[in-house]
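Hypothesis: this fold can be encoded by more than one sequence.
Test: take the structure tokens below, design a sequence, compare later.
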């Protein structure tokens, strides 16, 4: 349940001369799912444990990462009969909040945006202009003018997300007919205040980010030309920036403190607190079992394996 073995498709078992040049690799992760895993199983083993933290005022982030066409949007959004992580997390979050309703007043607000070619678009209000990232006086990153929706009804949210997802930039590539060409970020903020009037009353704020990344891709694999090629370059650039931040964060106690460049892309700037700060982070890496995507699978596993080494002080 924790090991992935990546076989080399070009390997010939009878070729003794090249026996030790095999590219076969074994990776160990916290949890590994095969093609039989259900949405429920994936959710329970990856995300369910984060909800408690969000209610206690910690941040939490869930990434879906992997090459084009391996099922990231399915894991995060799912379908009506097989809902994904977005909906299951929010349903459990509302249940947990209702259990504390006698002592606490709470509000839940959410926004849904996409980062496409390094510009931010509001998916709940797609006609609006491109939005700016700003830093407030406390150093937290805000998005100026984004639509925030307050609701505690999971059904309503599913409709909003499905509607928002239709506004996402999707284009056909050779790898996938409905390839997501942007990173989608669902941001949920939970604010709680105690009902007992006390002096110096404290407010707990927990943020939950759920990020459906665009497919990491090689232009050769997706046969991209022209506009698609430019998009692919932007996607790869922001994923590289994310990779660089992950690398810097996971450098094990080097002699000098590693500089983490969060300003390299809008994605890493937005997720600054979630990657290096007061946050619990889960990365769900997707790979395809096809032998034609051996290289993509290898790179994805190496990327995810590095992310596993991040140590943050919550």
């Amino acid at each position: 349940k924790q090991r992935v073995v990546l076989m080399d498709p070009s390997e010939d078992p009878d070729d003794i001369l090249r026996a030790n040049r095999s590219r076969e690799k074994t990776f160990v992760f916290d949890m590994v799912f095969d093609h039989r895993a259900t949405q429920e199983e994936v959710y329970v083993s990856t995300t369910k444990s984060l909800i408690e933290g969000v209610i206690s005022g910690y941040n939490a982030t869930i990434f879906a990462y992997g090459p084009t066409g391996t099922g990231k949007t399915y894991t995060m959004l799912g379908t009506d009969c097989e809902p994904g992580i977005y909906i299951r997390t929010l349903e459990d979050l509302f249940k947990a909040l209702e259990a504390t309703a006698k002592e606490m007043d709470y509000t839940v607000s959410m926004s849904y945006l996409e980062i496409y070619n390094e510009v931010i678009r509001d998916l709940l209000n797609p006609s609006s202009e491109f939005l700016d990232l700003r830093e407030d006086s406390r150093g937290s990153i805000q998005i100026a003018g984004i639509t925030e929706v307050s609701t505690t009804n999971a059904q309503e949210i599913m409709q909003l997300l499905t509607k928002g997802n239709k506004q996402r930039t999707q284009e056909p590539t050779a790898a996938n007919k409905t390839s997501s060409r942007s990173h989608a970020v669902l941001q949920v903020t939970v604010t709680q205040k105690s009902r007992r009037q006390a002096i110096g009353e404290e407010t707990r704020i927990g943020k939950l980010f759920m990020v459906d990344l665009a497919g990491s891709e090689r232009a050769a694999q997706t046969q991209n030309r022209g506009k698609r090629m430019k998009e692919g370059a932007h996607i790869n650039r922001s994923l590289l920036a994310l990779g660089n931040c992950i690398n810097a964060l996971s450098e094990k106690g080097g002699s000098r403190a590693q500089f983490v460049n969060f300003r390299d892309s809008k994605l890493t700037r937005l997720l600054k607190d979630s990657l290096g700060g007061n946050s619990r982070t889960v990365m769900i890496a997707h790979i395809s079992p096809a032998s034609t995507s051996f290289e993509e699978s290898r790179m994805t596993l190496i990327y995810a394996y590095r992310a596993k080494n991040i140590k943050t002080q919550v």
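DSSP finds ten helices and 13 strands in the chain. The two ends are 27 Å apart (CA to CA).
Hypothesis status: open.
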